[in-house]
């Protein structure tokens, strides 16, 4: 009898406004696919912001639910924390409506929900530990709590006593996290497979290239990693994982509403701000009330990394050299996705929360190209830069799309492998010419000087190019097509390329060359 | 009625509790039972009116209709059964939107007149409570920190400025200046201090009895937009489109069992300009070529606006984002295009990706067949495993039926354009312009006409656009050159040579449709003559 009464009362508490329809909770996905996109706003040379990655992922979850017949509310739990509810699509069902509820269960949410209702006010004696309880009615909102008891009205937070409110139950329409639900149409019931796909913020990926130049500079080996980062609170275990390369358009009208505002509002409760006028701060003792705890520090990177599965090679930049000597067991496979490129990891992997993961997607042992020392000319020649230039073609040993990312360039020499520079590349399609411009040489110098002007004659520039290296160097002077000046006096021919002209020569080891040209402003030709 | 049932239950409680205590085995946590009883107390009286009109356990709302506009505005109409006494009475209307624009409230019904409407937002806070208690007597309960013993005394509140100054007997003291805990108990809460802002209306009724009152008001905090899910099948050249109305409720109030109507449009709110608020959005990129508004009517309309009702009644909870389907069509013809727009004298050292453009119509024949309210179109495509992958999105404005849409979804990885300025030089044309003409009449009456001419000088700009395609299908890229009317008083543009015939779309913009073979390259060369 008692138990039945209790059950009845508890059932009454639990009955939410929506409960006219049966509620089915789908606790977690049965299988999940994660596709990570690259931040279109992030330049090729910029690293991923691991703390808050700027891009997003498309998460497709397959869930099996057991439905009673009729109209049913299905609640999806275990979705990504950064879910953008407006983007949610459901395959395998056509719901009547989808809802995202962001009324959160918090101290503030509790008080606000019980305004005007009865609670228990509990007071603990700090000396004896004796507990007294009395019935109270909440009379105001959470941040200015006033309750009425049989004795009269009082402000709970302003007394300095150890007191708290005890609630008869958690309101059913408040939830720990923003909750996604859908209401089905009238349906026959039974087991149903639903695919829930949605966009979630807090993900990003980058291509990380490791190029090793051959000692003669005529080729390089190129290994590329998909470096994926997640700052989401949810781990996706054994997910079909892929990454999309290319620039995606995001609409200006879209504000990825992940319910962050609701979370911030729920967290913000200043209990003492509305206490009565206080002459001095110590009158409202801060030490007596519980201060909101500071947010937990992000887990250290090393810890997060250990959560990854074993058959994936996880590497930080320092260990890349070692990783390259390892055989690559798994390589992501690329395919065209409309005008984008999709890289699919062929085995299920775990996209862990607050973690970074790397999987190889390209391993070209020998890409033929040229090591070039180049100076750009704007009147005079700039300091030279070293670059490795190659055609992204099958015949040269590559011929794969190269997504934008960062490049580390090594070279093998007598003293072993050394870093020679770092650079970045934009999205490069098959058939394009690619230049990895990775650093300034030390054994190769270009000195330009303008000669004394002679009236009526164009300015003349003398340039001395010196190669102190024990090997021959291909040297190029590059003239931009947008430059209005006219250069004359260089021996031999110019190579025309789109947007520029190039003059090239090879310097023998330990040699020096003197070049001279004149510069004239382009004028109207009468 | 409601009050009475609560009172009865309250009266029953002690007895019920006694009965329970005596029957329960020892050691049962009495607090739990007390809690449960209390919960019953909280729920029971509220659930009683569920048999009446009010559908929610706690809401005082009646039959609610909500009309939501795009520009963060909603019209709420709430029909409540209110029992009025004869003559003047003051009625409170709880559970209106917490963001209610009180000046827009109207109340209508039979057999009464409105005396005054009040919106009270003097909120109950500890500080306000103390300030209103100035000049009155309160009770202090002091707790001895060493023994825990409580002592009670009455105190007169003299002032509540910096520190609360109390008069206890003949002493003057500042409340809690010593930092020791003190409970302050007020005898009563002043009637105008409220938990939440409250709307009240004083009215003069001619007859006694219950009657429906229609309360209508405007509130910000609610808005809606459309979200479209577009699944693109490139090979078949078709899209499936699902349209969802996405409405958000941040009013702080739940509207239970409401009739909901969405109006596609921003109702005019004139004189609302309040100067720059710093909300500086980056200028949206120019719309792709091929957008043309249509002229087909259809669907439900309300004056100039399209309306989208939600079938049946629905509850819009506070802090909720609700999506309801309003469109589901499949097999709509669609095609993909590419576009690259170059600025005047634009020169790129590396090839730059062309934009991918998805083109379709919302006409009744060969299109989506419905007007599209403003929102976001997200485009998906199936990968080789059949999984739908996101390939980009674009915002659209309110789009009348029969329009052509061209949406930029992203930048193509494999289709690129490199614009190169090959040459720019000043030339003199074999063409003369008259710059002066005058007539001279001599004293003898003879007349001589004089005119002066000079050759025209122009800038010749030779452009080359290298369009490459690394895809295994041929594509057509719309290459546009902009910046052709920079000097509006000096429009003398000549295109003397172009390798593919172009279209002068406007004074500013000329477009060429450049076909590029699969895994191939096409070069477009154009020579412009401009006076600048």
How does this model look, in words?
The complex is a heterodimer of chains A (526) and B (532). Chain A is mainly beta and 526 residues long. Chain A has 5 helices and 33 strands. In chain A, strands 2, 3, 5, 13, 14, 15, 17, 18, 19, 20, 24 and 25 form a 12-stranded mixed beta sheet that branches. In chain A, strands 21, 22, 23, 26, 29, 31 and 32 form a 7-stranded mixed beta sheet that branches. In chain A, a hairpin with a 1-residue loop joins strand 21 and strand 22 (380-381). The radius of gyration of chain A is 34 Å and the shape is elongated. Chain A starts with a helix and ends in a 5-residue tail after the last strand. The model of chain B is unreliable at 1-57 and 271-284 (pLDDT under 50). Chain B contains 3 helices and 29 strands. The radius of gyration of chain B is 38 Å and the shape is elongated. The termini of chain B are far apart. Chain B has helices at 2-23, 30-47, 126-132, and strands at residues 63-69, 73-84, 87-93, 101-109, 112-120, 137-143, 150-161, 163-168, 171-174, 182-185, 198-205, 209-219, 222-233, 238-249, 255-264, 301-302, 305-309, 314-316, 320-342, 352-361, 375-382, 388-396, 404-441, 447-469, 475-481, 494-498, 503-504, 510-516, 520-530. Chain B is mostly beta strands and 532 residues long. At the A-B interface, helix 1, strand 2, strand 5, strand 6 and strand 7 of A face helix 2, helix 3, strand 10, strand 13 and strand 14 of B.
């Amino acid at each position: 009898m008692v138990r039945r009464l209790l059950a009845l009362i508890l059932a009454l508490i639990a009955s939410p406004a929506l409960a006219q329809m049966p509620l089915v909770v789908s606790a977690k996905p049965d299988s999940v696919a994660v596709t990570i996109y690259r931040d279109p706003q992030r330049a090729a040379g910029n690293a991923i912001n691991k703390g808050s990655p700027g891009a997003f992922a498309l998460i497709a979850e397959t869930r099996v639910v057991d439905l009673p017949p009729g109209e049913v509310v299905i609640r999806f739990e275990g979705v990504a924390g950064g879910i953008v509810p407006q983007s949610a699509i459901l395959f395998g069902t056509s719901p009547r409506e989808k809802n995202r509820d962001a009324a959160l269960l918090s101290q503030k949410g509790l008080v606000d929900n019980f305004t005007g209702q009865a609670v228990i006010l509990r007071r603990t004696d700090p000396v004896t530990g004796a507990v007294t309880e009395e019935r109270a009615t909440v009379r105001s909102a959470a941040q200015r709590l006033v309750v009425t008891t049989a004795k009269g009205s009082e402000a709970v937070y302003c007394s300095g006593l150890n007191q708290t409110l005890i609630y008869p139950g958690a309101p059913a329409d408040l939830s720990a996290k923003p909750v996604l639900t859908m209401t089905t149409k009238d349906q026959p019931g039974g087991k149903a497979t639903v695919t829930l796909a949605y966009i979630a913020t807090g993900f990003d990926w980058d291509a990380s290239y490791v190029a090793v130049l051959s000692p003669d500079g005529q080729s390089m080996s190129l290994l590329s990693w998909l470096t994926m980062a997640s700052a989401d609170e949810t781990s996706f275990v054994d997910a079909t994982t892929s990454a999309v390369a290319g620039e995606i358009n995001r609409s200006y009208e879209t504000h990825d509403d992940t319910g962050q505002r609701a979370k911030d509002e729920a967290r913000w409760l200043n209990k003492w701000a509305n206490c009565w006028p206080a002459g001095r701060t110590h009158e409202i003792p801060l030490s007596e009330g519980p201060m909101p705890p500071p947010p937990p520090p992000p887990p250290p990177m090393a810890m997060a990394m250990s959560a990854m599965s074993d058959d994936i090679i996880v590497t930080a930049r320092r260990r890349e050299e070692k990783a390259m000597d390892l055989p690559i067991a798994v390589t992501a496979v690329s395919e065209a996705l409309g005008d984008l490129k999709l890289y699919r990891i062929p085995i299920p992997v775990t996209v862990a929360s607050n973690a970074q993961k790397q999987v190889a997607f390209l391993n070209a042992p020998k890409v033929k190209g040229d090591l070039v020392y180049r100076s750009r000319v704007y009147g005079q020649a700039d300091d030279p830069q070293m670059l490795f230039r190659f055609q992204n073609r099958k015949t040269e040993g590559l011929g794969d799309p190269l997504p934008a990312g960062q490049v580390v360039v090594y070279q093998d020499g007598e003293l072993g492998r050394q870093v020679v520079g770092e650079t970045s590349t934009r999205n490069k399609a098959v058939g394009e010419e690619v230049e990895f411009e990775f650093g300034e040489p030390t054994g190769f110098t270009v000195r330009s000087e303008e000669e004394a002007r002679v009236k009526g004659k164009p300015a003349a520039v003398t340039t001395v190019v010196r190669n102190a290296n024990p090997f021959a160097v291909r040297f190029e002077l590059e003239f931009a097509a947008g430059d209005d000046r006219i250069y004359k006096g260089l021996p031999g021919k110019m190579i025309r390329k789109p947007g520029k002209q190039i003059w090239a020569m090879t310097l023998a080891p330990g040699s020096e060359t003197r070049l001279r040209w004149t510069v004239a402003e382009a004028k109207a030709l009468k | 009625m409601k009050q009475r049932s609560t009172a009865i239950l309250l009266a029953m409680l002690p007895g019920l509790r006694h009965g329970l205590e005596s029957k329960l085995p020892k050691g049962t946590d009495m607090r739990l039972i007390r809690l449960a009883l209390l919960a019953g107390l909280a729920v029971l009286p509220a659930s009683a009116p569920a048999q009446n009109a009010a559908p929610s356990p706690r809401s005082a709302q009646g039959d609610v209709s909500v009309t939501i506009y795009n520009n963060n505005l909603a019209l709420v109409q709430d029909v409540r059964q209110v029992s009025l006494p004869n003559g003047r009475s003051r009625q409170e209307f709880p559970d209106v939107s917490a963001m209610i624009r009180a000046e827009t409230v109207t109340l209508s019904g039979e057999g009464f007149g409105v005396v005054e409407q009040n919106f009270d937002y003097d909120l109950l806070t500890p500080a306000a409570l103390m300030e209103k208690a100035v000049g009155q007597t309160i009770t202090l309960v002091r707790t001895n920190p060493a023994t825990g013993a409580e002592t009670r005394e009455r105190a007169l509140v003299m002032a509540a400025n910096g520190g609360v100054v109390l008069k206890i007997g003949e002493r003057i003291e500042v409340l809690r200046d010593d930092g020791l805990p003190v409970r302050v108990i007020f005898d009563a809460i002043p009637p105008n201090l409220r938990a939440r802002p409250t709307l009240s209306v004083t009215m003069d009724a001619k007859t006694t009895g219950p009657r429906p009152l229609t309360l209508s008001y405007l509130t910000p905090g609610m808005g809606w937009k459309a979200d479209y899910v577009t699944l693109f099948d490139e090979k078949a050249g078709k899209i499936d489109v699902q349209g969802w109305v996405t409405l958000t409720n941040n009013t702080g109030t739940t509207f239970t069992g409401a009739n909901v109507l969405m109006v596609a449009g921003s109702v005019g709110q004139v004189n609302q300009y309040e100067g720059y608020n710093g909300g500086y959005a980056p200028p949206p990129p120019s719309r792709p070529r091929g957008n043309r508004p249509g002229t087909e009517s259809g669907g439900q309309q309300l004056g100039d606006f399209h309306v989208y009702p939600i079938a049946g009644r629905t509850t819009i909870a506070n802090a909720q984002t609700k999506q309801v389907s309003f469109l589901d069509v499949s097999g709509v013809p669609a095609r993909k295009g590419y576009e690259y727009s170059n600025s005047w004298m634009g020169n790129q050292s590396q090839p730059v990706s062309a934009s991918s453009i998805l083109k379709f119509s919302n006409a009744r024949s060969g299109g989506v067949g419905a007007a599209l309210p403003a929102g976001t179109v997200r485009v998906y495509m199936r990968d080789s495993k059949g999984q739908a992958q996101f390939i980009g999105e674009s915002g659209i404005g309110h789009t009348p039926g029969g329009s052509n849409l061209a949406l930029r979804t992203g930048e193509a990885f494999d289709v690129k354009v490199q614009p190169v300025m090959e040459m720019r030089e000043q030339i003199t044309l074999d063409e003369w312009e008259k710059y002066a003409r005058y007539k001279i009449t001599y004293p003898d009456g003879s007349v001589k006409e004089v005119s002066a001419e000079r050759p025209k000088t122009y800038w010749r700009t030779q452009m080359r656009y290298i369009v490459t395609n690394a895809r295994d299908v041929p594509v057509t890229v719309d290459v546009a050159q902009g910046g052709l009317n920079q000097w509006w008083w000096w429009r003398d543009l000549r295109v003397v040579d172009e390798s593919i015939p172009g279209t002068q779309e406007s004074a500013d913009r000329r477009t060429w449709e450049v076909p590029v073979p699969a895994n191939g390259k096409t070069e477009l060369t154009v020579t412009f003559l401009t006076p600048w």
